[in-house]
Specification:
This protein is an all-alpha fold. The protein is built from 16 helices and no strands.
């Protein structure tokens, strides 16, 4: 006869009773989900709460707008965009923290499994033996947190290696968890076997063999978030220009193959850091360019006031760091956190763009403020004919900005 969860609690009610040598240890599954949290887990819980609050606020605004029929009202649309952005930033911060903190992912992984077992036993529909043999609902936890943790932490033996207080419970959960892992391995091997059986032609077999020997680097996919980042951060949405011009730039960005690629790479970087941090770095870059231009008596262009140029270049560096085989060799491959000098290169490039644009528009007074040996090279670069896009090459702009900075700072 199986002992049910409520019987476990009743049997454990007497704290002073000790099991005999022949009596099996009692397992208090009521404590399964009550493991003390580490500081990292508490910080993660704060991120999770922030996300849930932002999501709830956005969902409520959508529901209210639908109910009142004001979904297309201009003011409501602005509010929705703001709430959606807050929700998406919080989601990226949450997911990024879990994906790139293996230790935290392991703890979340364990807690999600603990909660699954505890919930199934508390329901009274399943016994411990059912769970252990996976005759109950089985399968993995059906939560977003588990999906993220599972993608980072590969479950293996010894997952539930708790302290003395949880040793008995963890031993039981470890046994049940191993049943699940074994089932998963069997399922994957069966699927892989079926795929191999489908390969018939010799050249196909060779291709499969080659792909197994040299697996391509894979990156996480999230098209919805990529589209959000593209439209919000890479299309000059925050530039002080007319609505018509913003719509034109948005349409252009959505048609740009580079924008699609860079948005994905910017998301990857945001998952490792967080989007708020990257946004802050972009805004600091804007101020650095303004400082140089002020020394020249020049005003930043409307597009220069937008974070897009900074985040676009940051994302571009990240993209080529991820896809080094596509780099033309003119630049050192690496992102802004691996190669800090990349930040200065990006600032120099936009400084060069602003100065070349001003010079092309007839500005000449700033030339009198240039000092030092680099003035001759600056004049030479300013005299270069523009490319088809109306400005100098990426390398020339960075060099021009570097020389300008030296000449005025």
């Amino acid at each position: 006869m199986h002992m049910r969860f409520d019987q476990f609690n009743n049997e454990a009610a007497n704290q002073n009773s000790m099991p005999s040598e022949t009596e099996e240890p009692r397992i208090d599954f009521g404590e399964v989900g009550k493991v003390e949290s580490t500081q990292e887990e508490k910080d993660f819980a704060t991120l999770q709460q922030t996300y849930e609050e932002k999501k709830a606020a956005y969902d409520k605004l959508v529901a209210d707008a639908n109910e009142s029929g004001t979904y297309h009202n201009a003011e409501v649309v602005t509010q929705l965009d703001s709430k959606r952005q807050e929700r998406n930033v919080a989601q990226l911060d949450l997911e990024g923290k879990l994906r790139f903190d293996p230790k935290l992912a392991r703890e979340v992984y364990k807690k999600e499994w603990r909660q699954l077992y505890a919930d199934q036993l508390r329901s009274g529909r399943y016994t411990y033996d059912d769970i252990k043999s996976m005759k109950g609902p089985g399968g993995a936890p059906k939560t977003r947190l588990y999906e993220l943790a599972d993608a980072t932490f590969d479950g293996d033996s010894g997952v539930f290696d708790g302290d003395a207080r949880n040793a008995v419970t963890d031993e039981a959960l470890e046994e049940a968890h191993q049943h699940f892992l074994e089932d998963e391995r069997t399922r994957r091997e069966a699927e892989e076997g079926e795929k191999k059986e489908q390969v018939e032609l010799p050249q196909q077999k060779e291709a499969v063999s080659a792909s197994n020997e040299k697996p391509k680097k894979e990156f996480s996919k999230n098209p919805e978030m990529d589209a959000y980042i593209r439209d919000t951060y890479l299309s000059y949405a925050d530039a002080p220009v007319s609505s018509e011009e913003k719509e034109r730039m948005l349409a252009f960005t959505r048609e740009s193959g580079s924008a699609q690629k860079y948005a994905e790479s910017l998301r990857h970087l945001a998952e490792r850091r967080n989007l708020s941090e990257l946004d802050g770095i972009g805004r600091k870059m804007i101020e650095e360019v303004k400082k140089v231009l002020a020394k020249l008596g020049l005003k930043m262009s409307a597009y220069g006031e937008s974070r897009t140029w900074a985040l676009w270049d940051i994302a571009k560096q990240e993209y080529f760091a991820e896809h080094s085989d596509e780099n033309d060799g003119a630049y050192k491959v690496g992102g802004i956190f691996e190669l800090p000098e990349k930040k200065e290169e990006i600032v120099n490039r936009h400084t060069g763009w602003e100065v070349y644009k001003a010079h092309s528009g007839g500005e000449r007074a700033f030339l009198e403020r240039l000092r030092g040996e680099g003035k001759e090279e600056i004049m030479g670069l300013l005299a270069h004919e523009p490319k088809e896009n109306g400005t100098l090459s990426s390398y020339e702009l960075a060099r021009l900005g570097e020389l300008i900075k030296r000449a005025v700072l």
